[in-house]
Amino acid sequence: MRYLPKSPAEREQMLAEIGAAAIDDLFSVIPAEYRLTRDLNVPRHHGESEIIDYFKAAAEKNATGYASFLGAGAYRHYRPVIIDTLVQRGEFLTSYTPYQAEITQGTLQAIFEFQTMIAELTGMDVANASMYDGSTGAAEAILMAMRVTGRQKAVVARTVHPEYREVIDTYLRHRELPTSAVGYDPKSGRIDLAALEAQVSDEIAAVLVQSPNFFGVIEDIPAIAEIAHKKGALLIVSIAEAVSLGVVRPPVEADIVSMEAQSFGVALSYGGPFCGVIAAKEQFLRQMPGRLVGQTVDSEGNRGFVLTLSTREQHIRREKATSNICTNQALVALMATIFLTVYGKEGIRELAEHNLAKAAYAAQELSAQPGTKLLFTGAPRFHEFVLETKESPALWSQRLLENKIVGGVELGRWYPELGNATLWCATEMIAKEQIDRAAAVMAAGLVEA
Predict the structure, then answer these.
(1) Is the pTM here over 0.90, yes or no?
(2) Considering the domain 82-341 in this protein, what is its CATH number?
């Protein structure tokens, strides 16, 4: 009765009201050969204590104690325990959308603080709260640029996360808004500036690049901005690894910044939910999707917070809406807010420096093994690097797994020209001993090969 509240008498009454003799009459339109006439082949029902025991036993089968060098847009950073302690408070966890400002001051203030910190980090004037994730944020940023400029074309760098590019294509394909791709320099891994200049015309609304890009390389944002602005196009910078802003100069030359804030205390959780955000110059404020929270004072002069601008379909007529994104990402944005508050300015910088050092050591040790080569060495990078091996990644990946190590991501499925290249990531969660062990396993296998 806990989950099926209708009693047999109530069900009979409902059937009588609609003129059916039995529940089976409701399915009479389905041909007999397609109807299931037996009980479902599922285990018997369990008591609550039995269910808990079942899941405890299942959890013990999970792989634990593995060193993971995976990154590629989803990053494993330490999450302070205070994050879950605070976000699970009822006033945050159960709230939906802060329509009634007088009873949602906590949520509104958290969003306001999030916006403020994101604007400071990115070097932009304003930030929203928030988008689904970094991929939808990038697509929405392109649509925003098209609204601002009145142009209908965009140029997207091939060094932007491939899955971000797939989402952008899905957004724009059926709206007949064309995009073109611009390649990268094979030595540095940066966008090909000469090719970009050739593609940017008076018809281009925006140039979208990622920095650090998908190869972990820092792009030359001032040079890209000069090319885009010379033709009246807006520059959109996508940031998939937010922690990089602890040491990387913010893209102040950009007009719009689209960022994935997952690294700021949001668990990987098998791929989501994540936390996207768009930040921009103030002049583009009214074309931003999502919503913004502002600070004000009440009739007695006390500080308060309100939804200042909400150009979503929930708040405005469809033809005037900037986006149909209408879910509430405030809880995930709150995780990022707590993370940034706990670490502070110096802490974020130290965290980024730690990541930088770990990746530099990993790149040095792994590329020193026979049959390996570090690619894209002609430009600075953050905590990811591309490693090329003579041996197929499928072979050494298996040896690493046997030693409880998850190696890099194969790039061949997105970049066929890179052959056996893989993308490796080393955050503060990777220990020096694990890097040394991975290098030893790689070396042993490559020597045998």
Answers:
(1) no
(2) 3.40.640.10
